[in-house]
DNA sequence: AAAGCTCGCGCC
DNA sequence: AAAAGGCGCGAGCTTT
């Protein structure tokens, strides 16, 4: 049984609170909402108390903000199974509405036996906005027991007036736990290998304030080709002027524009830009700041993107260049078990829309080849461009040209995308499969639209309104796919997390050096990026971990799309060193 | 000097 | 290669 469903059926809660003076307390809540006696806790007693209750009844811990509470538990060696993160759940509930499905999406589901969405106006209720700004950051929400109890009560009441959000709230909260756990464990990082990579590209580490040798050399080549010995290559405006003086007529210094020109300066300049990027984004300064004791610890921000994707704020986990992947290296006696989902988003689209033809194309390991085999388009590349274009709202170019053929071949999937776009263009909200709702358009957007429809509107007003309407349509079109894919990934992660916890503790093998008390002797998640995970595992458990990753993917598919004939094949590797693909 | 902006480019 | 959705981050540059 998928773990999230079990989590959703949790019978009891413990609500944690912290006063401004740092005094801690806990209150048990029954399923009917009855509170038990308040248990005051000293800071030293918190972890032990949590561990006891966790072992006895495996409750759901209700707290203000996972980054505020969980690190101290992990530090004390206490891992919990589930929580309810009030800040994250607040953000979901505050946007959600009980409306006829914001896009009539579920009507397209042929195989979903789930409940239909009741159509009823939302009742007036205690506002969810009392809880402060639902943004990430220290103390962006109150941590007191009083505030937590009141907010939790509001959220329970709000849940009752909205579509069924239990799974989404459980998944979002599980993600919050995982983000902290991954930060605690860290990605095993081979600093020497990273340094070798840097040295091979840039030359040895220069003194502070000095450019690496390779950049100096290539920079001179660029200046020679420009015929300008003092050209500044690091300032785009100055570089544009230098290029123009040398006869290269560019409007920007972006690489795709540069590549359109034939000139001796182009090749060395592109090379220079690559080196500069490597140095500034992932050079020695990055190593010093983000890798300590052989562990890379970026800061993940679960729910940081409106679609439900995670964001990051520090360390750049979302932009880790493929070039640097070889620096990810398992500890001695350990392995990296890496997996990513092939074409997650179109598969999610097929399942969500109940598109049997697209589901059939997705049956094999490669969805794009499947599309070609059904005869919709001629080549795999065409299939990929057409599909991505359809999900992102491309109207011109190759993707726009191929769109009608996809519409004929996959009417359910394309119809759902088109309806989501149309809803957005009219200022409406759309929703993901588990019920995450798109944000309403800004007041400025609405004002712009109404202005354009008033008498006296200029052609420019109308053109601008049409453009911003289409922009919003492209956003809502993509929202339903990106957001539902994020939900699939969360379910995958959460299921994997509990499966990993069920693996036996390693007692006699080598332990993971800097992974924290909880994870040094067991397989643990260390990296997540939209549709990809890396687990750091004792070598003898690597196969079991691979099985767990596959099983969790199957569970996630069935949890989101019960009965859907859409599979989510994984590209799975067991290695000592992560490789650039 | 700090804050906020755009540009360019890395990831999915 | 192309063109579209979502991001973070560093650099230069401008504003406060």
TrEMBL record:
Pfam families in UniProt: DNA_pol_A
Annotated ranges, domain DNA-directed DNA polymerase family A palm: 321-541
Top EC class of this enzyme: transferase
UniProt name for this protein: DNA-directed DNA polymerase
Biological source species: Leucobacter luti
This enzyme's EC code(s): 2.7.7.7
SMART domains linked: POLAc
Record GO biological process: DNA-templated DNA replication; double-strand break repair
Recorded catalytic activity of this chain's protein: DNA(n) + a 2'-deoxyribonucleoside 5'-triphosphate = DNA(n+1) + diphosphate
């Amino acid at each position: 049984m998928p773990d999230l469903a079990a989590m959703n059926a949790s019978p009891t809660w413990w609500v944690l609170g912290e006063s401004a003076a740092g005094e801690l307390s806990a209150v048990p809540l029954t399923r009917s909402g009855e509170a038990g006696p308040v248990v005051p806790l000293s800071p030293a007693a918190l972890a032990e108390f949590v561990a006891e209750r966790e072992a006895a009844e495996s409750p759901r811990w209700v707290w203000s903000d996972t980054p505020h509470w969980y690190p101290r538990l992990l530090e004390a060696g206490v891992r919990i199974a589930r929580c309810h993160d009030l800040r994250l759940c607040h953000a979901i509930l505050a946007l959600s509405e009980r409306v006829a499905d914001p896009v009539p999406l579920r009507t397209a589901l042929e195989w979903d036996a789930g409940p239909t969405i009741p159509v009823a106006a939302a009742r007036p209720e205690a506002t969810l906005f009392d809880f402060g700004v639902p943004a990430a950051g220290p103390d962006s929400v109150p941590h007191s027991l009083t505030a937590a109890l009141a907010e939790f009560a509001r959220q329970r009441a709000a849940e009752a007036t909205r579509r069924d959000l239990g799974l989404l709230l459980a998944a979002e909260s599980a993600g919050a736990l995982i983000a902290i756990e991954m930060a605690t464990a860290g990605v095993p990082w081979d600093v020497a290998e990273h340094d070798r990579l840097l040295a091979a590209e840039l030359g040895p580490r220069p003194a502070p304030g000095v450019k690496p040798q390779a950049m100096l050399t290539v920079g001179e080549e660029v200046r020679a080709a420009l015929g300008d010995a003092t050209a500044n290559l690091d300032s785009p405006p100055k570089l544009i002027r230098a290029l123009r003086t040398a006869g290269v007529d560019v409007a920007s210094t972006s690489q795709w524009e540069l590549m359109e020109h034939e000139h001796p300066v182009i090749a060395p300049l592109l090379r220079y830009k690559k080196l500069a990027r490597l140095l500034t984004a992932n050079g020695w300064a990055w190593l010093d700041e983000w890798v300590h004791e052989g562990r890379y610890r970026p800061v993940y921000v679960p729910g940081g993107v409106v679609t439900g994707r995670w964001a990051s704020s520090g360390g750049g986990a979302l932009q880790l260049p493929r070039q640097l992947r070889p620096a990810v290296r398992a500890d001695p006696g350990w392995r990296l078990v890496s997996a990513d989902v092939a074409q997650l988003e179109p598969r999610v689209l097929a399942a969500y829309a109940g598109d049997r033809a697209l589901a059939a194309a997705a049956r094999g390991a490669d969805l794009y080849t499947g599309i070609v085999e059904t005869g919709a388009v001629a080549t795999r590349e065409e299939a990929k461009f057409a599909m991505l274009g359809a999900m992102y709202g491309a109207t011109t170019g190759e993707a726009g040209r191929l769109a009608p053929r996809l519409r004929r071949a996959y009417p359910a999937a394309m119809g759902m995308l088109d309806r989501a776009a149309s809803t957005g263009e009219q200022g409406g909200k759309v929703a993901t499969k588990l019920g995450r709702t798109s944000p309403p358009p800004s007041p400025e957007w609405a004002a712009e639209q109404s202005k354009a429809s008033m008498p006296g509107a200029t052609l420019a007003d109308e053109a601008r309104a049409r453009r911003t309407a289409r922009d919003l349509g492209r956003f809502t079109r993509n929202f339903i796919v990106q957001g539902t894919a994020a939900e699939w990934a969360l379910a995958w992660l959460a299921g994997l997390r509990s499966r990993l916890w069920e693996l036996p503790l390693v007692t006699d093998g080598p332990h993971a050096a800097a992974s924290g008390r909880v994870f040094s002797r067991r397989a643990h998640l260390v990296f997540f990026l939209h549709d990809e995970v890396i687990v750091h595992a004792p070598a003898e458990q690597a196969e079991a971990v691979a099985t767990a990753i596959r099983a969790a993917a199957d569970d996630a598919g069935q949890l989101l799309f019960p009965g859907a004939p859409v599979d989510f094949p994984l590209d799975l590797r067991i290695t000592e060193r992560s490789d650039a693909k």
